[in-house]
Specification:
alpha/beta; Collagenase (Catalytic Domain); six-stranded mixed sheet; 17 helices; globular
Length: 623
């Protein structure tokens, strides 16, 4: 269950100009989906307007007005919030306006669209920018599903200020930044409740060693940053006396902090959230790479920001955080503070970007008293069982959505009446926008299987937090999914989840990555880590998902009595005790283990499997 309004923009615009975008949104335990077709002309015009804004922010040319910003924001809003998605957003907004802030989480699949200025989304019906009012926008990434547990709150807040420019730099004012930050923590925490260390980043190797040996709760970078177009990777620049500047590239810097327990990284440098248009942001943008490596909150910038405005932003955000505000409430305060900067411009408030695993987290909680009041929206909590597992409490759907159908979208196959075996792929929470394209290709090349994609609301409580990991708990879904399998009139449901899997067998809890539940007609595939393994195997994520689904379809077929084994590496049914062994199978992408292959006596089925495994999806955006 989502405690925010969560929007996944799935699919791709071909050549950045035309295509179908799928908007999948979640609010509480409701899910809705809509599709938007963008023509070549519309795509080109929208891309042009995005480029004009970027050029105006960076250079002042060409002219760009506040009215044009509203028009661009409205076009972006209409692109991703339409039909049922807009309806659910309006329901969520109604609660927010009555009770407080409603965080707006945004996930964008196509790398060429990630760099669009989504922070300027404008609701023309209510005449407001979402970020400025009730919906602080934060960004997420399609990550590997690593542990996102927030580090324990410290007794003393430990702050590291990394200055990447000389103290007398003519373009920036590092001493003003240091002064502003010290004053915030001193005034609101007191000298005994924080430590503050300032380092000049003129010795990158020493800084690396220092970060490995010393723990910090906040790492704040002040200096220049940029994007290397040849390398397609963002970087932080560290000036060194008598030497060429050193570049901390996105992945290098993120890996330095990957094993630390940093709660917040604040990147006060231009373009620290800029990534490649052809590479996932977790591998190309500094801010996104840090989030992917386990930092729960990262503040960056999508454009250049005036130095004076940057001071206003950072000091205001820290003021809010140390007073116990949620992350998104603090970011909203920071955006509003930019209105008071002496040299402000009408677009400054949209330049900061927040990447976070949870926009509602309180990074630095303070002791609450009965008189404390919060302007943030209150949400249902979680219940903890005797094993320490936490299940989300159920809540009612927003008004008007209680009759939401269990299947909110179904992409059916035209071959379903002719194929021998009908399969519905259910996207529980993997958010793979390319699935309709995948099944269209899969159905076109063979006639044994008829695939279709199904999106449906997921009941609250299907996720569990156990052993510091989020798991999809199969017993909470089995009955519902079996009913859906009968309702859809398909032979098999293959359910995709981004989490690890957990279930019960002979009263014992088990964990796995793919499994058949109590019913052989319903199987589960965990895509936990598969995006990264597909990258290492140099295959698309779409192809990796198809590979895993084929494995489950065969292993659940009662005719052949197939099972996982430890005999090989590269077979469809390898046990893969080390999850990374999956890379070998993805590289092989062939059903050539003769011992398993000989068990299957249906020639038509074997031909279909071989044909499907031979498919390649290089043109499918599936990062």
């Amino acid at each position: 269950m989502s405690s925010s309004f969560r929007l996944h923009v799935l699919g791709t615009l071909l050549a950045g100009e035309a295509g179908t975008l799928i908007s999948l949104c979640e609010f509480q335990n409701a899910r809705c989906l809509s599709r938007t077709e963008l023509s070549v002309e519309s795509g080109r015009e929208l891309s042009r307007r995005v480029q004009v804004l970027r050029s105006h922010v960076e250079t002042g040319f060409p002219d760009f007005t506040y009215k044009q910003l509203k028009e661009l924001g409205a076009a972006l809003f209409d692109l991703v919030l339409s039909d049922n998605v807009r309806r659910l957003f309006d329901e969520a907004s109604g609660k927010a306006t009555q009770q407080g802030l409603l965080p707006f989480e945004l996930f964008v699949e196509d790398p060429s669209l990630i760099g669009w200025p989504w922070e300027y989304l404008y609701d023309r019906t209510h005449q407001r920018f979402l970020c400025e009012e009730f919906h602080p926008i934060s960004r997420g990434v399609f990550t590997l599903g690593i542990n996102r547990e927030l580090p324990t709150a410290p007794i003393k807040i430990r702050i590291l200020l990394i200055i990447g420019v000389p103290p007398n730099d003519q373009e920036t004012t590092p001493l003003e930044e240091e002064k502003a930050l010290r004053e915030v923590f001193l005034n609101y925490l007191g000298a005994d409740n924080f430590t503050f260390k300032v380092v000049l980043a003129n010795d990158p190797q020493w800084l690396d060693h220092h970060l490995q040996e010393t723990e910090y709760d906040i790492v704040h970078f002040f200096g220049h940053a940029g994007f290397d177009t040849a390398r397609e990777e963002g970087y932080l620049r560290c000036d060194r006396p008598g030497k060429a500047p050193f570049r901390f590239y996105a992945n290098h810097f993120a890996n330095m902090l990957a094993t630390q327990r940093v709660r917040l990284v604040f990147l006060n440098g231009c373009k620290t959230a800029v990534g490649s248009e052809s590479e996932t942001p977790t591998r190309s943008a500094v801010a996104a790479a840090l989030l992917d490596r386990g930092v729960p909150a990262v503040v960056g910038a999508q454009y250049s920001m005036p130095d004076a405005s940057a001071h206003f932003l950072s000091s205001t955000i820290y003021h809010a955080l140390v007073n116990g505000k949620t992350l998104t409430a603090a970011i909203r305060d920071g955006r509003r503070a930019l209105e008071y900067a002496d040299a402000k411009k009408f677009f400054d408030w949209g330049i900061p970007i927040i990447y976070t695993t949870d926009p509602s987290i309180v990074l630095f909680p303070r002791k609450q008293t009965p008189s404390d009041e919060s302007s943030d929206l209150e949400w249902p909590g979680v219940a903890e069982d005797e094993n320490g597992a936490r299940d989300v409490k159920g809540v009612d759907l927003p008004d008007g959505l209680n009759q939401l159908p269990m299947v909110v979208d179904r992409t059916k196959s035209s071959q379903s009446n002719f194929a021998k075996y009908r399969v519905a792929i259910v996207d529980l929470d993997t958010r793979a926008g390319f699935l309709p394209d995948l099944i269209e290709r899969a159905n076109a090349v063979q006639s044994y299987y008829a695939f279709e994609v199904v999106y449906m609301p997921v009941p609250s409580g299907y996720e569990r937090e156990l052993d510091s990991a989020t798991q999809t708990y199969i017993p909470h879904l089995s009955g519902l999914l079996k009913a859906r399998q009968s309702e859809l009139k398909v032979n098999h449901l293959c359910c995709l989840t981004a989490n690890m899997l957990a279930g019960e067998e002979e009263s014992e809890t088990y964990y796995n990555y793919f499994t058949v539940g109590d019913d052989p007609d319903v199987s589960f595939v965990s895509t936990y880590g598969v995006r990264e393994y597909a990258r290492l195997a140099k295959v698309s994520f779409a192809g990796a998902i198809l590979y895993l689904c084929i494995s489950m379809l065969l292993i659940s077929d009662p005719r052949w009595e197939l099972s996982e084994h430890e005999e090989t590496l590269g077979c469809l049914f390898d046990f893969c005790e080390l999850r990374s062994d999956l890379v070998i199978g993805l590289r092989n992408r062939a059903f050539d283990h003769q011992k398993c292959r000989r068990r299957i006596q249906d020639r038509h089925q074997l031909e279909a499997v071989d044909t499907l495994l031979a498919l390649r999806f290089e043109n499918v955006v599936s990062h």
